[in-house]
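Title: Prediction job returns without error message
Component: structure pipeline
Severity: low
Priority: P3
Assignee: unassigned

Description:
Job completed but the reporter wants confirmation the result is attached to the right record. Sequence as submitted:
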Amino acid sequence: MDTLTIGSIHIPYTWVAFLAAIFVLEIVTKKRATWQIDSFLFQYILIWKLSYVLFYLKAFIQAPLSILYFDGGWKGHLLALCIVMITLIMKRQQIQFEDLWKGFILFLASYHIVIALLNVNIVLIILSLLASIVLFKKISWATALVGVIIFSQYDWTSPYLWSFVFLFVLFTFMKRNQESKQLIGLVFVSLLIGMMWDSSLKEMKTTEGHTTIMLQSVDDEKRTLHNPEKSLTIVNFFATWCGPCKAEMPHLQSFSQKLPDNVELVGVNLASRDHGETALNGFLQQYEVSYPILIDENDLAGKAYRILSIPTTVLLNEEGEELTRIVGPLSEEKLQNLVKKYAE
């Protein structure tokens, strides 16, 4: 789970880490004006967020409030990255690129320190702290350390990884001196280390078992949550009154129409926490839901899977063992990435 739980509220670790990194950046750059990258970060985030309307117009029209929960995905990142790069090139005469890069590395190191602390990842904590300390002495080594972190923590489809690569290429192109050549070499080494670390992490796979539960579907068929004939079953717990559930429904429906043969998507309506059959039927009709929907009348599944906040999505293997879970709404892109990671 990658959320911070405070009572019944679940806050994604990424939000906590981003705000903490911005706070650190503000404190450190008060006396280092040339390090400040705030305006570029906010430009990037604003474009990335609003691009949701451009790239997911149908989902936005079906659920306008979904813009609060989603963004433009990798296409939004690419659009934001291109615009920020154009801005940087246009302002190159007014910018100290080395100092700006230091601010960017400080932001990334601070961000991953918080992520590592929340996940209790000792190795990541040490690397991020080292990057923060070395930054004030040797930017090339700090960049290499951050490179190791990014290349090991994000897969090759991640927009975060490619944003780092593109900005690094832009920085070294603008600088073009002996140190930039050294920097390229160090980042190449960090790429190799990150790939080896990533491969070792992928070999580690943990599961959690659950009691087999049989539920009735809206089509009056009784079945288990997982499908023994599929290597991966994605189980989405929801209620009709839940705003984030409404936001993700167009994404879930679109995703369900593009599933690989070895993957199934199942919805579980927490009926004991919801507004009844009429509300459920209207909800399913409104979002044109065609994938299987099970009704958890007595909260058996809700309690067995410790569902405290909705929506919650649980990934099960063919034996019904839990591989991972995500609290909060999921975009179609995120669901596709989960399939690539967990489907065998």
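Comment from assignee: result matches the submitted record. Residues 46 and 80 are 8 Å apart (CA to CA).
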